[in-house]
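The methods section describes the discrete structure representation at length, but only in general terms. An entry of this sort, consisting of the sequence and the corresponding backbone structure tokens, reads as follows.
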Amino acid sequence: VEEQARLQKEIFPELKIGLLHGRMRPADKEDVMARFRDGEYQVLVSTSVVEVGVDVPNATVMLIEGAHRFGLAQLHQFRGRVGRGEAKSYCLLIPGNEEAVDNERLQAMEASNDGFVLAERDLEQRGPGDFLGTRQSGYAELKMAKLTDVKLIEKARREAIALFEIDPDLSQPEHELLGEALERFWNPHQGDIS
């Protein structure tokens, strides 16, 4: 609210500036968006509530302050809010401090507009998390192939099927360590502590 007032008074006194944030009632949010879409507001100051569901073809500039705090998927969603019309558009990523300038996520955003490439970079940087649990980032004990390594994944699947056909419970001595690793993967809460 303070930033919108400052911009209106000091930076863009000749423009009308709308404000959108998550504490607004849905009807009020829709009203602000309609006014922005119709050109009544030339600038829209918003919290991250603008991430999805906003389709304003005449929006041409997105400035994200503190961009280093957001994940790649969220930054990509923000950037997708502009450039939907015919006019050239820009997405400006403003890091919060000097250290954040070298942020890998911001560099990835600068290097690519491709959502699949960014999703893979996000997976490389943050890890897949716990597929069957609640942890949303980090690395599992079992390493994952790149999502683009389809042939390798298909071959690994065929090998796994063949292995389970000859040793379904992985009880043969040469498969014992694999069996233990799979047990830990599927039952992560069963450890040495009872």
Remarks:
- The helical segments are 2-11, 26-37, 72-79, 104-111, 115-126, 150-166, 176-186.
- The two ends are 52 Å apart (CA to CA).
- Strands lie at 17-20, 43-46, 61-65, 90-94.
- Residues 66 and 96 are 4 Å apart (CA to CA).
